[in-house]
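Journal club prep, notes for RB
We'll compare a predicted complex against what the paper describes. Inputs for the iron/sulfur cluster case:
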Amino acid sequence: MILRVVNHKFHYEMENLCRVFYPYETIRVIRDDDGENDDITVVTELYGEYTVRVSVNIHGTTGTREKSVADYDDCEREMAILLFSLLSEISGYTPKWGILTGVRPSKLMNTLINEYGDKGAKKYFTDKLLVCEKKTELAYEVAKAEERIMSLSDEKSFSLYVSIPFCPTRCNYCSFVSHSIAQAKKLLPEYVENLCKEIRQTAEIANSLGLRLESIYWGGGTPTTLSAEMLEKICAEINSDFDLSHLREYTIEAGRADTVTPEKLRVIKSAGVGRISINPQTFNDDVLKAIGRRHTVDDVVRVFGEARDAGFDNINMDLIAGLTDDTYESFCNSVDRAIAMDPENITLHTLALKRSSTIVTHGVDVQSGEIANKMLEYAQNRFYCAGYRPYYMYRQSRSLGNLENVGWCKDGFECLYNVFMMEECHTVLAVGAGAVTKLKDPYSRNIERIFNYKYPYEYNSRYEVIAERKGQIKEFYDKIKRC
Ligand code: SF4
């Protein structure tokens, strides 16, 4: 597919929109009108003061639209509307989020509420961004829930993220740098040693700055891939280094049932972990096999029971709409089974076609955006009826139909970290390979990032560089104080 960009700078937005309609196409962006064509060619132009024009040729079906725009600042949105309407008409498919392609619809909703009020913000979504009514209401409800959670955070707040980038096998939709435990076993003891060092150093800095730890989240990867002894060692390091008297929430992802044992559950529970995530993704064994998981649905049910027995009264379950070999009926069954198990949270993701995932590199078939949306609608109705409410939302780029991921929970069980992190309302100090510390200036929108090495072997072999970069945390807070 060719996207020609003539005389404007809106190529990023136009490319994103093309991808919503044609997720499998490789899009070649060509500057200016050099006449080159492909089976699908889209030409976007800006000329004069100001006219936007979009012409498309989709396998021989052509169309052109243009519009005069009074203000340059509206040109990008108006061009996107022309492109959206042409592609919708020709493909017969109208994406539910309209021309809104950003990753945080609820954040935008919040900004618009502050500017135009509740009604005006919803109207902006439906009229100016062509978002359908249902998604608008969803974004609004999430924005309100997020606002309540964000108000818990102040300038001294921070969260701690612990990265454990290891998994038993790689899921076919995954592009994380998660190392299979079989390959990485020999790296683990040194990894845990370095991680403990980094935790200690991070705590010293946070304590010296008078920062207040509000939430802890272990992700990855699958943290429960570590042995019970390793989990215990890291938990003990955190508990002895940080002041936990202000901690509101402590989560460890125990995503893959084949990594969880009663012993590990006991260890993390007695270390103060209050929330875990057990992620079935689907309740269909054939689909589990197709996506590359080694556990079964029965394993998920067993581990869930063991977690309850260990005293966990705040459990999340992740599901994904649009997995390989899944059908609408099978997905609906997964939703029903998840609800029947009565977890406090259910996070519903839409499959995203990540560039380096097996799905993309091997061209595996996936569901259409329309079916994926039907799945989400079924789940949404069932969640509401079962007493769950949406409280957090984001979108991944290249998700089927440009659809959303939403955290649903029973009243009072919102995962605070998810909102703190997604809405970037306070600093996240992150430790481990692939972790990214985000330093948030509480008095502005400014965020500075410190990147750790991605791969565990680099993290181990160049740990002293990571240790040195930690100095940037203090520099950042000193700078804020001076301003
Ligand atoms: S469990 Fe998550 S991190 Fe691990 S391979 Fe699967 S998608 Fe990737």
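Talking point for the session: The chain has a mean pLDDT of 94.
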